[in-house]
C-alpha cells in the first residue's frame, strides 16, 4: 500500500540552508521512494496570516517553488501545487470549522503565545490577534484531510497542529460518517535524524534570529556568510573541539561520514578556522552549485513555474473535487432534485387540489377552490371574517357527499343545507357544466381521501 505524505511550506520568506537540510532535502528524498505518494504545496493562504505585504508573498511563492524544483523535486512523480489554487480547501475549512470546538483552538500554541505576550504587556489578551491566526489550525487540518494524508512531515512546532487535525477528523467522521470513515487520521512525522542546523551564531538557523546562510545566493554571498560563522578564539595550530563548534555541525550536515571524519581529525590537529571555513564553503558549493544554476534559470522563467503549479493544481483537484462533493452530501448540502424524498413531496404538492383564501377590497374574505393544475373550480361567497371562510372550506370537505350542485344558465352553484356558498366559473355549454361538476366532486373526494 502506498503511503500518502503531505506537507506545506508557508510562503513568507526565501529558503535558507536550514530549510534545505531540515525540510526540502529530506522531503525530496522521501518522494523518490517507490511506495510514496507525495503532496507538497505552497501554503500561501497560511502566508496571508503572517504577512500583509503582497509583493513579499508573490516573490516568496516564486522563490520557494523554484527552490523545490531546482533541488530535484519531480512534479510528475509528486503532486506539487499552491494551496490557493484549490478552492475546495477553503470550502472544507468551513465544514471543519463548524465541527471544531472553540476550546480546542484556545489551546493552540501560536494563539496562546500571542495571548501570553499581550497579558504580560498589560494589553487586551486578544490584541492584534486575527481570526486567521486563531483559525490557523483548521485551515491546516483542511490541507491535510482534503487529501487524506497518512504522514505529515513537520517541525516540532507543528506537531500540535497535526494532532488537532486528527481530533477534527475524528469528530467529523463521528458526526457524519454513519459508519464510513471519511478522513484517515494523519500522523506527524518528525525526522529524528535530520539535523536542526545551527545558524551563524550557533543558535538554530532561523530568519527570526537573522543568522541564516542563503541557499541560492551568489557564490560570493555564500562565502561571505560562511566567513561570518562565529568560532572561538583558538589560533592556527591550536587543537579545536569539533563537538563544540557549530561550524563542524554545519559541515557534517553536508559531508559523507568519511569527509566528516577527516575534518574532525584535522580540527583536532589544529586546522586554522580560516582554512576550515574555506573547506565548508567548498563543500557547500559542491552540494549546491549545480542546483543554484538550475534555480537561476527557473526564476527567470516564471511562466514555466506557473504552468507546473497549475498542472499540479489540476492533478490535486481530481481528488479534491469529488471528495468535497461527498462531504457536502454528508453534511446535507445536497441537490434538491436528486433526492427521492424531496421529489415525492413536490409531486404530491403539485397534483393536489387546494383552497386559496384571499381578501376582497371591501374587507370581506373569499376562497377559491383550485384543481391540481391550478384551474379554478369554485369561488366562494363573501364572508365577514377569515375564520368563517376557513370553517367553510372544512365543511366543504367534511360534507362533500351532501353538496347541492345546482346547474344554471352559464354556471352552477354549490349549496350546503340550502345555503348557496360558492359558484363555478362560467361555461359555454351545459355539457361543460356537467363535466366541471364531476371534476369538482372528484377533486374534493381525492382531497378528503388523503
Ligand atoms: N503550518 C506549517 C508551517 O508553518 C505549514 C503548513 C500549512 C503545513 N499547512 C500544512 C504543514 C499542512 C503540513 C501540513 O510549517
TrEMBL record:
<dbReference type="GO" id="GO:0005524">
    <property type="term" value="F:ATP binding"/>
</dbReference>
<keyword id="KW-0547">Nucleotide-binding</keyword>
<dbReference type="InterPro" id="IPR002305">
    <property type="entry name" value="aa-tRNA-synth_Ic"/>
</dbReference>
<dbReference type="InterPro" id="IPR050203">
    <property type="entry name" value="Trp-tRNA_synthetase"/>
</dbReference>
<feature type="binding site">
    <location>
        <begin position="155"/>
        <end position="157"/>
    </location>
    <ligand>
        <name>ATP</name>
    </ligand>
</feature>
<feature type="binding site">
    <location>
        <begin position="10"/>
        <end position="12"/>
    </location>
    <ligand>
        <name>ATP</name>
    </ligand>
</feature>
<keyword id="KW-0648">Protein biosynthesis</keyword>
<feature type="binding site">
    <location>
        <position position="197"/>
    </location>
    <ligand>
        <name>ATP</name>
    </ligand>
</feature>
<dbReference type="InterPro" id="IPR036913">
    <property type="entry name" value="YegP-like_sf"/>
</dbReference>
<dbReference type="GO" id="GO:0006436">
    <property type="term" value="P:tryptophanyl-tRNA aminoacylation"/>
</dbReference>
<dbReference type="Pfam" id="PF00579">
    <property type="entry name" value="tRNA-synt_1b"/>
</dbReference>
<feature type="binding site">
    <location>
        <begin position="204"/>
        <end position="208"/>
    </location>
    <ligand>
        <name>ATP</name>
    </ligand>
</feature>
<dbReference type="GO" id="GO:0005829">
    <property type="term" value="C:cytosol"/>
</dbReference>
<dbReference type="InterPro" id="IPR024109">
    <property type="entry name" value="Trp-tRNA-ligase_bac-type"/>
</dbReference>
<keyword id="KW-0963">Cytoplasm</keyword>
<feature type="short sequence motif" description="'HIGH' region">
    <location>
        <begin position="11"/>
        <end position="19"/>
    </location>
</feature>
<comment type="subunit">
    <text>Homodimer.</text>
</comment>
<comment type="similarity">
    <text>Belongs to the class-I aminoacyl-tRNA synthetase family.</text>
</comment>
<comment type="function">
    <text>Catalyzes the attachment of tryptophan to tRNA(Trp).</text>
</comment>
<keyword id="KW-0067">ATP-binding</keyword>
<protein>
    <recommendedName>
        <fullName>Tryptophan--tRNA ligase</fullName>
        <ecNumber>6.1.1.2</ecNumber>
    </recommendedName>
</protein>
<keyword id="KW-0030">Aminoacyl-tRNA synthetase</keyword>
<feature type="short sequence motif" description="'KMSKS' region">
    <location>
        <begin position="204"/>
        <end position="208"/>
    </location>
</feature>
<feature type="binding site">
    <location>
        <position position="143"/>
    </location>
    <ligand>
        <name>L-tryptophan</name>
    </ligand>
</feature>
<dbReference type="InterPro" id="IPR014729">
    <property type="entry name" value="Rossmann-like_a/b/a_fold"/>
</dbReference>
<dbReference type="InterPro" id="IPR002306">
    <property type="entry name" value="Trp-tRNA-ligase"/>
</dbReference>
<dbReference type="GO" id="GO:0004830">
    <property type="term" value="F:tryptophan-tRNA ligase activity"/>
</dbReference>
<feature type="binding site">
    <location>
        <begin position="18"/>
        <end position="19"/>
    </location>
    <ligand>
        <name>ATP</name>
    </ligand>
</feature>
<keyword id="KW-0436">Ligase</keyword>
